[in-house]
Design goal:
With 152 residues, the protein is an alpha/beta fold. It contains six helices and five strands. Helix 5 packs across helix 6.
Length: 152
């Protein structure tokens, strides 16, 4: 699928919010689950409301999770909850927000913690894969979270 980055066998990040045809395509390509990280405040950017996206995903045979993330209100609890829910879903999982920044950051934090990486290593790996922490606050949050949850 175009405009996606396969992070590992479990997670692929979409750098877009999928429309119905892309959701069907994801299912045809073997994805088992879809995670939407967009918030209700993004209504002007949403191609579909989360309820409609859930319906399209389930019609395509995908398990759906709406885990809204406001980039201005990041917390350890929000990442912990994402990690718990995302690992319980059938894999492979396609994760998206509007551009891939939040979804990329959350998936990379999860993988970094699982693999015992440092926050700095996660930032470097994310950049190599085409993800950017576009604000110092996001970069600092990613580093801090990973450093404090390393190996957990």
């Amino acid at each position: 699928m175009q405009d996606t980055v396969q992070v590992n066998d479990r997670f692929t990040i979409a750098k877009f919010a999928p429309e119905a045809d892309r959701i069907r395509q994801a299912a045809q390509e073997g994805f088992q689950s879809l995670i939407n990280m967009q918030t209700a405040d993004e209504d002007d950017k949403l191609k579909m409301k989360p309820e409609e996206e859930r319906q399209k995903a389930e019609e395509a045979g995908l398990t759906f999770l709406h885990h809204p993330v406001d980039g201005e209100k990041l917390s350890d609890d929000l990442v912990d909850e994402f990690r718990q829910k995302a690992t319980a879903l059938p894999a492979p999982v396609l994760v998206h927000c509007a551009s891939g920044k939040r979804s990329g950051a959350f998936v990379m934090m999860h993988i970094g913690c699982e693999q015992g990486m440092t926050g700095e290593e996660v930032i470097k790996k994310a950049e190599e894969m085409g993800f950017e922490c576009d604000t110092p606050e996001l970069e600092d949050f990613v580093k801090s979270y990973v450093d404090n949850h390393n190996g957990k």
